[in-house]
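Give me structure tokens for this 127-residue protein.
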Amino acid sequence: MTTQCSGCTRSGQRGSEPSSPNSKPLYQLVYTLLQLIPPGRVTTYSSLARASGLHPRLVGRILASNPRPVVVPCHRVVRSDGSLGGYRYGGPRVKRRLLELEGVSFRNGRVAMDRHFLDVASLLLDP
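Here you go.
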């Protein structure tokens, strides 16, 4: 069963409340998965969602509450199209700079996904 973000279904429509949206184990799961992303690589909200069984919006909410940015590298999570998405600690400009310092390259304002994407879900779930 997939845990959903508060009021959202997988399609983003309003739906039932999650069983435990602020559950510490869920946060720890996402933060642990982030440790698999090395410097110079990125993953997506969708990939983390598939790997954790959570809704992508809930993954985003968990990342937004990350108490230890950079140590728990939430800046390495981007949207599926390579655009940066949000970053609580200084916005997209700071997120981009952190990624650039780690060697991530950009094309037309988006992460060069063909060079830097790491699919955490496939890494963990594919045989």
